[in-house]
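Reminder: ligand-aware prediction takes two inputs, not one.
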Amino acid sequence: MPIFDINPDISRAHTLASDFYTDEEYFEQSKEKIFARSWQFLCTSDEVKNLKPLTILEGFLDEPVLLTKDDENNLHCLSNVCTHRGNVLVENACAENGIRCRYHGRRFALDGKFLSMPEFESVESFPTERDDLPKIPLAVWQNFLFASINPFAPFENFIREMRERLNWFDYDRLKFSAAKDYTVKAHWALYCENYLEGFHVPFVHQSLNRAIDYGSYTTELFPFSSLQTALSESPSSGGLADAETQPLSKPQNPFDKNIASFYFFVFPNLMFNFYPWGLSVNVVKPINPQKTKVSYLKFTSDESKLNQGAGADLEAVELEDEAIVESVQKGIRSRFYSAGRYSPTREQGTHHFHRLIAEFMKL
Ligand code: FES
Ligand SMILES: [Fe+2]
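Here is what comes back for the chain with fe (ii) ion:
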């Protein structure tokens, strides 16, 4: 069976073969085929004064980019590499009003346009567009910035359902409150596919399982994303009112009814977890086929709800997930394991994720 042929019918399908996780060659190919063509989280837009250098997926894609804000307050994402001999231009965030290469003095405007260069008067056919800094597609959603080196599809296609389904969420009140990185000794896709099913919750997460109603846990699939919704186990465990007096079909704020959390996954490596207290963004960053960094960014809107329900102890849940995913990492290397099957009622998200991996890897 060819590795990137995942049957669209979940009841017939086999999971992605273990070679995908163990073979260095697939890991290398996934850089250009999956990650360079998807939308990567950069930072929040209020972090950009005039110039903010960033590396897209450091240690993996390693693409140096420069976020700039021009005089009209337009944001740009530019290559942070000088078009002369390739020096990295800006090393630290600053409020400079232009870009000047410290190697031989080439200057650029904040929109990347070439401005000047000493000792180049007699150079023929110079400057051309090739002397401007290349622009990298940039997208903004709420206060978050994303870039794609070589987009497979417009950002809107990746984000549409999250924007529409969570349009009632009070984004304006979100305040950045904490960042924490976790190193997981496992392949990035094992970490993601674990996130994509609630099947393991009763087995792996005892305390989370007490906060949510596993029976009513749902998964919805969209072209490049998926949404898992967990209801609270009881009105007292989420922060909630009477589900019957205010039907769920037209909620003002679904957390006030009995929804414990919304877990939005945006392919291939972004997790947006909406809780009554705010939003936890998880960025999954591949390091090597056996190692992944997961960055947790916490944005709080209502501190009083921090210790309630499904979003109460994310650290404990994370450590439980890491332990099980690291165990799978060891298992998939076995000579006796190559692939498994899916539960059609509980693993739709994982099946969908494997199909997207296959689609991107085939091209
Ligand atoms: S590398 Fe930038 S001016 Fe020479
Ligand atoms: Fe989990």
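The two ends are 18 Å apart (CA to CA). Residues 108 and 315 are 44 Å apart (CA to CA). We will return to this case in the review session.
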